[in-house]
Structure formats: C-alpha cells, structure tokens
Amino acid sequence: MKILVVNSGSSSIKYRLFDMADESLLANGLVERIGIQGSLINHYPAGKDAFIKEIEIPDHRKGIELVIDALLDNKYGVIKSISEITAVGHRVVHGGEKYSGSVLLNDDVMDTLNEFIELAPLHNPPNILGIKVCQELLPGIPQVGVFDTAFHQSIPEQAFLYGLPYSFYEKYRIRRYGFHGTSHKYVAQKAAEILGKDLKELKVITCHLGNGSSITAVKEGKSVDTSLGFGTISGVIMGTRCGDIDPAIIPYLMEKEKLSFKEINDILYKKSGFMGLSEGISSDMRDLEAQVSNGNKRAKRTLDVLYYGLKKYIGAYTAAMNGLDVLVFTAGIGENSPLLRKTVCEGLSFFGIEIDDKKNDGLKGKKAIISTENSKVKIFVIPTDEELMIAHDTAEICNNFNG
Ligand code: AMP
Fold this sequence. Notes:
globular, eight-stranded mixed beta sheet, alpha/beta, Nucleotidyltransferase, domain 5, six-stranded mixed beta sheet, about 20% strand, single chain, binds adenosine monophosphate
C-alpha cells in the first residue's frame, strides 16, 4: 500500500510518498514559492538523484501536477502509474470540535472544513485548496484529512474553557483547541513503545518546540491539556509569537500606540517572541544560542524567558496529571538543542526529573533516552514524524473503508 501525504500551505506544498509495507519513504519533496517569482520543485526520490527545477508555478494545481509528474518521471520517478497510490493523506490544521480523529474527505466533510475557515483563516484555505486539487487530479483515489486539532479534542471542559462569558463559547465556539496534535500523539506513542509500555498507563508531557511551540499533557493516552489554544499564539514564547501575555496589554497598547486591529495582530504573531524580545536579533534558535555564547545580553534574556516558561508548563502539567512518568522533547529546537533541554530540566529534581548530561550532549538527531538511570521521570528526545503519522491514519481509514 502506497500513501501520498500532502501538506499544502499558502505558498508551498510538502509531500511524501510512503510504502506502508515497511514504512519506507519512496520520495519526498517540496514545491516552493507558489504564485511568487522564483518558484521551484525539489524532489528527492529514494536511492536516486534529486530533481530540483525552477519553473513557473502560478497556483496549487500546477504545483500538484508537478508533484505527480515527478513521482511518475522515467528518471526521477518512483511509481509507474498513479493507480499505485492507494490514498492521499492531507494535513488539515483545524478540525474544530467536530473531528476528534482522521476522516475520509467527502462532500459533507469539505463543507464543514469550509465552515472552519474562520477559526484558522491562514491555514485551512490552503489545506482545502490542496485537497480539492488532489481530488481533481487523482480521481477515484480516497483522500483522508488528518487534523492538527484532533488529538486535543479529549481535553476536558475545565481545561478547554476560557473565563469569558459562556455565551461566547456557545455562539462562536471560543475555547482551547490546541495544535501540533499529530506530533504530540506520535512522540507520546513512540516513547511508550520504546519503554515497552501501554501509553494508557503513562503520564507524559510532550514538548513540541520549533518555530511554533506547544506543550501537551497526555494522560491515559489522551491529551488533557495543551499550551496553544484558540489561536496559535499562547503558551511559551515562539519564533515571532508572544506566548502567554496578560490580555489587558492588548487594549492598552492599542490605545497608546494608536494601533489598528491588524497592527496589533501583526505585533503579537509576527514581531514578538524571540524576534521581539531580542530586539530583532533573530526568530531562529540557532542564531540566539550563537549570540548567547558571544555574551549577547538581549539573546540571553530571550532564552531565559523561554526556559522559565517551559519549566512552568512542565510543573503545571505535572500537577494537572498528579504525576509524571515521561518527558519528551521534539521538533527543531526540542530535537537539536542540548542546551535548552539541560537548562529546562535542571532544577526540576523535585519532580523526579534528572537529565544525564553525557547522553544529552552526545545525541545526534536520533531518538534516545537522556535521563539518568535514577531519574524517576524518563526524558526522551524523539524526532517528530507528522507525515508518517498522517500516512498511518490514512492507511487505517482506507483499510476500514475497504474491509
Ligand atoms: P521547526 O519549526 O520544527 O522546523 O523548528 C525550527 C526551529 O528549530 C528554529 O528555531 C531553529 O533554529 C531550531 N533549530 C534547528 N536546528 C537547531 C540546532 N541545531 N540547534 C538549535 N536549534 C535548532
């Protein structure tokens, strides 16, 4: 069974083709700068030369056409006919309150996804576009939607409600949704698998720390709380997003600086976090760490805020679950920054968290346990693989559908 996974963004399409017999990756690639000058396709077939071509890509339709051509190409291709693709799995950011799992994308689901555009105005439209183009270009091949929000639909009311008038929840569905769900679920399951335990028996905190970050508490195999909420801005500070702030700041700043709705939104989402606190050094962790080692105070205060925020979330979620067995770090920063892992874990021995410096430093992008033998809490680094998780869900839904 071959599954194509598509992650369609506003100006890019990421794709992977898996052979689910052994979960091997047959090809992966990226269509970039759709509708922008200098658009290109980067195609990486397993065991063959990469194919990178600059070509005009005015829209998503052309982008997906190029992906299909690349997959079928005589020299760079990995399949002979599109009928070899059993199904396509799509990453969809927002599934609202309706989807707590992945679904086969029929007309009814597509109508519902259109309704959720107002909940994720930046992400859902390009996701929907990618699905529509695939439905057109790959007729008869089942398409499955895998939602970033789905894993968090198990969060109980006490954790998903905000302290606003309840009518806003009833009228507008304003609540905590959470994101990166596919990643949190994947790494929590992997950690349990490595320990040889059932995830349902473990209390786990997963830290997905990348350009966007979220922390999730997983109890009895279910997400019970997560740091991103209604939008993708709360929780710890991120590359350019502010993380948790007192909401009183927003009207105050708008008045002081005479800001429009769009301008304040831009500040909170695009000019804050690492970028804002460091006064423009960078939104990228690597740059900030390099500056800290050069003694830069602006970079240091930025990372101190991040480390402190992470410690607080780990503490809060340990309390929420009344214990902790496993702490997982994943995504760009979580997987690659030993300094962050060390600083965050230090001083948490009260919770039974003890990092092994040697294991932490010696790690090279692989999954590993980095806690000491005596640590009550097992600390893991697990590379996230949202695409593989999407492929799994897609295969499962197709199997159920066919059988
Ligand atoms: P992601 O959104 O998961 O791709 O993660 C992007 C973030 O990971 C950026 O802030 C990068 O600076 C960070 N990152 C990637 N590689 C490293 C590294 N070797 N050390 C520290 N941070 C890294």
